[in-house]
Amino acid sequence: MLLKHTTDKVRERNALTVNPAKTCQPVGAMYAALGVHGCLPHSHGSQGCCSYHRTALTRHYKEPVMASTSSFTEGASVFGGQANLLTAVENIFQIYEPEIVAVHSTCLSETIGDDLGQIVQKAVADGKVPEGKHVIQAATPSYVGSHVTGYANMLEAFVKYFPVKSDEKKRQVNILSGWVEPSDMRELRRISSLMKVKTVLLPDTSDVLDTPMDGTYTMYPKGGTTIAEMVSMGDSMKTLALGEWATDKAARTLDNKCKVPFDMLDLPVGLRATDRFIQALAQAGKVSVPESIAAERGRLVDVITDMHQYLYGKRVAVYGDPDNILPLIEFMVDMDMRPVYIVSGTPGKSFPKKAEALLAERVPEAKFKNGPQADMLLMHQWIKEEPVDLIVGNTYGKYISRDENIPFVRMGFPILDRVGHSYFPTVGYMGGIRILEKFLSAIMDKIDVTSPEESFELTM
pLDDT digits over 333-381, tens only? Predict the structure, then answer.
C-alpha cells in the first residue's frame, strides 16, 4: 500500500536509502565460503547477525546453510570478541570437524576494532587449530559495500592463504567465479569439460547448495573447491576472473603472489559475453572451440531470431549486482530491447562508465545509477515518470510489479518467493536461451491476460 504514495518527482538524496538494491557483506562472505569443500563459515559477531545471514541464503537456495558464530553479548561488545573467537575456534574443530573455518567480521566486531588476523594467529599459537586444519579471515563490515563486496573479500582471503607456486607449471586454468547460482558454476565446469580444458573453479557451490535428497544429512557435502585444488592454483597457466566486482581483488592477489596472469572478463551472460569467455578459455587452455559449443551458440542465435519480433523495443527496468546486470543489459541491447532504468546498490566507480559505453549509442534515454542511493525507490520513481514493459531483478521487485501491473522476471539474489532458480543456469549459451524464455513468457503472459476476447490468440 505504501508504494501507492511513491511520486514521480526524483529528488537528490545524500543520506537516505529506501529499500536498497543490495544486502550486507557477511552474506556474500558466507556464500563464497560455502563454495569450498569442508569449509564452515564463521560469523564474528552476534547470534542475530549470523541467523540473518544464514536465513537469507537458506530462503534463496532452499537448502540448510551451516555457519557458526562468536555469539557476542554485552561483554564482548564492550571489551572485544577475542575470547569468544578463541573459544569458538577450539569448539568448532572439536565438535564439527571442518577442514577450514572461514571467519568473517560483522558491523559490531568491526566497530569495536577486533583484529581478526591477530586473533587467528593467537588461536594457532595457542594450539586451538589442529594440525592440518586451517583458519582464514576476511573483514566484511556491513556498513560499507554490499554482499558482492563481502563475496570478493572472502574470495581474496582464500587466494591469499592457499595457492602455492612451485617449480612446475600445471596445464590448467583457474576460473574465479562471480556470484552466480550453483547451476551456473556447474555449467562453467560443463563448458570447460566440453572444451577439454582442465580448470580449477573457485568458489564452486554446485553439489553444496543444490544437493540431491537421499534421506541423509551431510554437514559438508561432496561439492566445493578442495584444498588441493586451491593450492594448485599457484601453478596454473592463467586465471579467468569472471566479474570485476566479485573477482578483481582475488585475481590481482593471485597474480602478485604466484605470478599467474589473469584476464578480467564479464560473467558469460548472453551472447557476446559468452563469446568472450569461450574465446578466452580456448586461448588460455590452448585448444580450439569444439563443434558442440558452436552448436549451442547456433541454437541461441536461432532463438534470438525467433523471439526478436516479440522483444523488439521493449522497455526494461533492471536492478541487481553489477557483475550480473552489465552483461545482461548488453544482451538486451543486442536483442533490440531497451534497458532504460538500471540500478545497483553495490558501489564502484567503473559502473557508470561501463553502463554509458553499453547504452549511450543504442539507448540514449537510459538512466542508471549505483551506490547507496541507487535503491528501489529511485527505480520506482523512474517507472512512475515513464512506464516500462518488463522488470528484471530479485524478489523485491514484486511490489513495484504488482503496483504498476508490469511483467516481472526474477533474476539475481535473493529470490525468496519462487523455487527452481538455483537449478537452471543463466550463464553460457544455454543460459542465454533460459533468459530469453523467461523474458518472453512474462511478456506473453500479460498479453494473454489483458487481451480482449476478439484478440485472444491460440498461437504466438
Answer: 999 999 999 999 999 999 999 999 999 999 999 999 999 999 999 999 9
Using DSSP's 3-state secondary structure scheme, residue 412 falls into coil
Count how many Cα atoms sit within 13 Å of the Cα of residue 408 in the half-sphere of its side chain.
20
Query: Any alpha helices (H) in 142-197, and if so which ranges?
Result: 147-161, 182-194
Residue 353 in 3-state DSSP?
Answer: helix
- Exposure string of 328-346, with b = 16+ CB inside 10 Å and e = fewer, is bbbbbbebebbbbbbbbbb
Burial (CB count <10 Å: 0-12, 13-18, 19+), residue 247: buried
- Condensed to tens digits (0 to 9), the pLDDT of residues 219-237 reads 999 999 999 999 999 999 9
Q: And the C-alpha cell for 457? A: 490468440
**In this structure, what are the phi and psi dihedrals at residue 183, rounded to the nearest 5 degrees?**
-65, -35
Whole-angstrom Cα distance, residue 185 to residue 204? Answer: 6
DSSP state of 101: E
Do 435 and 331 form a contact (C-beta atoms < 8 A)?
yes
Grid cell listed for 131: 594440525
pLDDT tens digits, one per residue of 82-102: 999 999 999 999 999 999 999
pLDDT digit string, tens, across residues 145-180: 999 999 999 999 999 999 999 989 999 999 999 999
pLDDT higher than threshold 70 for residue 124: yes
**pTM summary value:** 0.96
Q: What is the mean pLDDT of residues 30-39?
A: 98
* H or E element that contains 255: helix 244-258
Nearest partner of 438 among 427, 428, 426, 449, judged by Cα: 426
Count of CB atoms within 10 A of residue 71's CB? 17
- Pick the closest to residue 111 from 49, 197, 35 (CA basis): 49
Segment 444-449 shows an average pLDDT of 93
187: buried, middle or exposed (CB in 10 Å: 19+, 13-18, 0-12)?
buried
Q: Mention every residue, 6+ apart, whose C-beta is less than 8 A from residue 418.
A: 395, 410
Q: Supply angle C-alpha 345, 350, 353, rounded to 5.
A: 105
Spatial neighbors of 296 by CB under 8 A, at least 6 apart, are: 428, 429, 430
